[in-house]
Amino acid sequence: MSRPIILGIVGDSAAGKTTLTRGIAQVLGPENVTLICTDDYHRYDRQQRAEIGITAIHPDCNYLDIMQQHLSLLRTGQPILKPVYSHKTGTFEAPQYIKPNKFVIIEGLLGYSTRAARDAYDVKVYLAPPESLRADWKVKRDTQKRGYTAEQVLAELEKREPDSEAFIRPQRQWSDIVVSFYPANENEDGSNGHLNVRLVLRPSIPHPDFTQILDAGNGNSQSAVRLGLDRDMGKPVDVLEVDGHATLEQVTKIEHIMCSDMPYLKNICDREINPELGKIAGTTGETLQSYPLALTQLIITYHMLKATQIYQ
Ligand SMILES: Nc1ncnc2c1ncn2[C@@H]1O[C@H](COP(=O)(O)OP(=O)(O)O)[C@@H](O)[C@H]1O
Ligand SMILES: O=C(COP(=O)(O)O)[C@H](O)[C@H](O)COP(=O)(O)O
């Protein structure tokens, strides 16, 4: 059976969805990827939300039924007429006719909130940075790119907190991979490219065999690359942690575990061919490079390519 492979990237506002998605899309080849942001399924524009007093992250503020219908259509390779919400103006624009490419990446706030929507994905990722880091990212981005003041962003975050708790964070349980970038020490503000990453790998999809990391003598609590067992929302999981100061040699070792298992990934592992991996658009126009981000993007790409072996 040939059909598009669907990746979900879900998380709260400014959790890093766009940043994570960019590198994956680049590696899969922009011509092979259809990118969809579920913000387009907002029911109300910016002014209406303010008048009604509803937050953008409340399910009632989104046409989740239509989002779900569109996901099912895309999964079977059919086109959709997608609404368009502009973050620049806070209003809706003319809808877009979209035919799915080989890979479809759906990023947004409430992508896993209904059972039928969840069933549409091949790989489900949930982004969960510490809330203080997310607030920092959101203030920087929304003041620089979306025309808000810092006070407005902080007030909005406070207003949204009950909805984040009720509707966004529970979606973590449905993901195959939980991605959390975090500063090595609490005083760091996350504006540099040296954040660590903690990847929760649920047994809901078969992950590469990272136990070789342990065999190679890495993986202990002192190492910049650590593999362990834990529980997440009560369920047993593997946890892979990569520090921002991990060396190229350590990172390459993990890449090889994946690349030896997947011929197509061999090209991707070549950094010179894929400079987009691990790139972060800093909020003041600079570009940063992060090994933990590059590895996270590579693991997700690995799963997308595995899925093509089954369905394409
Ligand atoms: N892994 C990361 N490391 C450092 N900064 C990041 C990372 N991910 C996101 N950011 C910062 O946070 C901001 C918000 O991220 P973005 O990807 O736009 O979030 P979302 O799409 O979830 O709203 C970005 O402008 C970027 O500066
Ligand atoms: O929470 C988000 C999602 O965006 P993201 O996940 O990219 O942060 C936005 O605030 C709403 O979509 C409304 O948009 P706006 O605030 O521009 O009206």
Automatic annotation (TrEMBL):
Task: Provide the Phosphoribulokinase/uridine kinase domain boundaries.
Answer: 6-185
Q: Tell me the pathway.
A: Carbohydrate biosynthesis; Calvin cycle
Q: What is its EC number?
A: 2.7.1.19
Q: Which UniProt keywords apply?
A: ATP-binding, Calvin cycle, Kinase, Nucleotide-binding, Photosynthesis, Transferase
Q: Which GO molecular function annotations are given, in alphabetical order?
A: ATP binding; phosphoribulokinase activity
Q: Does the record's keyword annotation contain Disulfide bond?
A: no
Please give the catalytic activity noted in the UniProt record.
Answer: D-ribulose 5-phosphate + ATP = D-ribulose 1,5-bisphosphate + ADP + H(+)
Quote the InterPro entries the UniProt record gives: P-loop_NTPase, PRK, PRK/URK
Concerning its family, UniProt says: Belongs to the phosphoribulokinase family.
- The name under which this protein is listed is Phosphoribulokinase
